[in-house]
Amino acid sequence: MRISATLYLTDETITPVRLARELEERGFAGLYLPEHTHIPVSRASAYPGGEMPPECARMLSPFVALAQAAAVTERLGLGTNITLVGQHDPIDLAKQIATLDHLSGGRLTLGIGYGWNREEAADHGVHWPTRRALVRDRMALMRALWSAEPTAYEGEFGSVAASHVHPKPARRGALVGPRTLIGGAPGPRLYGEIAEFADGWMPVGGGGLPTRLGELRNVWRESGRVPEELYVAVTAVVPEAGKLEHYAASGVDEVILQLPARGEAEVLKVLEDFGRYV
Question: Has this prediction a pTM greater than 0.85?
Fold first, then answer.
């Protein structure tokens, strides 16, 4: 089981360069970064799990920060947890993703999700009830651009003409592009979406995971997907006695440990403590 790390990286925390170097030197498998473009002051949307951390409004662009991390490492995996696909122009996002994956030598994992902040999404022109269909459509459009040959796409929310576009992501196959994991709460709808157009699930750590994974594996298999190809990365994990062993026994492929959104000294102290899990 791979052990990676995540934090709300901001203009006030440890830098992506220092963090990436430290993670690679300490043997961590990857660095995952979340995304918010902005947090509207007037907000009715409830933050999942309680009070919204102030760092949400200060997050660095994950793709810019991960590009810095890629430039100073050789083995460290790079990922998003998660990219708000519906809030991006898909042609531009496809270029950013492919460029980062190319420059990092295929080290990118794309965590995607549907979001929780209606006000933020609205500023991007997202109609909330259709956001899941929008994400599915934009992933299909991006995969058309990542195809080996010029491929047109006409969808409900966007289209692109058959085009010459490079670079291409490193991974080829039925699902072109980097490994894609969908974040979200468990349930039949999410399981179906994972089996339809992703490579696996990125849940937030919590109870009941073995049962949920069994449900997902059933849907995955019934959809004709290869059982061994399902990838599960549990994120935002605060490690404690027995927790990582429990995840490993449940068949989790990767655990992403939660670091504090703090300065260099405090983050390095926590990394030193977390080192015993790597």
Answer: yes
